[in-house]
Amino acid sequence: MALLPTNLDMDVLRALVIAMEHGGFARAAERLGRTQSAISLQMKKLEEQVGQPLFRKVGRTVALTDAGDLLLGYARRLVALNDEALSAARGRAMDGTVRVGFPQDLAERWLPAVLGSFHRTHPRIHVEAQVGRGRDLRARVAQGTLDLALAFGEIDGPAAAPPGTAAATLAHLPVAWVAADGFRADPGTDPGTPVPLALLDAPCMFRQHGIERLDGDGRPWRITFTSPSLSGLWAAVEAGLGVTIRTPLGLPDTLTILEPGHGLPTLGSVPLELHRAPSAATPAVDRLHDILSDSLARLLTEAVVQK
């Protein structure tokens, strides 16, 4: 009789994914409410099931072996499929309408995947999505024309919800100078050389902040390109028309963040907030709120931290 294949333990796979996404066994233990030794035992059990070493020592930390890296990719897919199956079974009868707003930074890559997955698991919930700027999105939540909105808060300011809304701060993101590869901000032998700026149309918080920092440092600048859309701005920066101001969120692979030492002032950080209208208290809104929070947490761990 042929031996039955080994079934991987979903709890162990989830622990592996969380450990790798959040920086080790200790943080995975905190998130899962277990001890670090319990997580270590789970990983040892996983190695026994696979029959290959999955981890290797790197100083005081551990890293994945080639087999571990391969398994991690499958683990992410299996955990995501497990969660999607449960959501579909539990939420198929859920219906209603959710009105939600997003910043342009999330519209191109992240938004289609999240809303597509939500629609597959909750086909009877109608989602009305809007893409806009933070100030407008927050105002629409306060007015009750949006149920939920992801929006940037004030740069280097306290995270505070507008009157009539509730907000959760998901992360504080660095505000950075973004340029094409090879861009030089150093004025060289002529300190009067203006910094070429590619910016979104006013009013724009990032635009205003960058200009104020340059003025504070006494650096001359000139606007070489403006655009109403983030996609147009990215194209101009990629073409070398200027440097812009943004967070690492949604940054195209063709662009780079200028590290300190390029001769431009530091820019601080900005909170990314999830706003909710208090009147939006339906199960459909609750479900999308939770999915947005969880998905953003994964995105910020996988993408922003790597920049």
UniProtKB/TrEMBL annotation:
Q: Does the keyword Manganese apply?
A: no
Entries under Pfam families matching the protein: HTH_1, LysR_substrate
Q: Which UniProt keywords apply?
A: DNA-binding, Transcription, Transcription regulation
Q: Transcription: is it a keyword of this entry? A: yes
Recorded superkingdom: Bacteria
Write down the Gene3D superfamilies for this protein, in alphabetical order. Periplasmic binding protein-like II (3.40.190.10), Winged helix-like DNA-binding domain superfamily/Winged helix DNA-binding domain (1.10.10.10)
Q: Can you give the residue ranges of the HTH lysR-type domain?
A: 8-65
Tell me a Gene Ontology molecular-function term this record carries. DNA-binding transcription factor activity
What family is it from?
Answer: Belongs to the LysR transcriptional regulatory family.
Its recorded name reads LysR family transcriptional regulator
Q: What is the lineage of its organism?
A: Bacteria, Pseudomonadati, Pseudomonadota, Alphaproteobacteria, Rhodospirillales
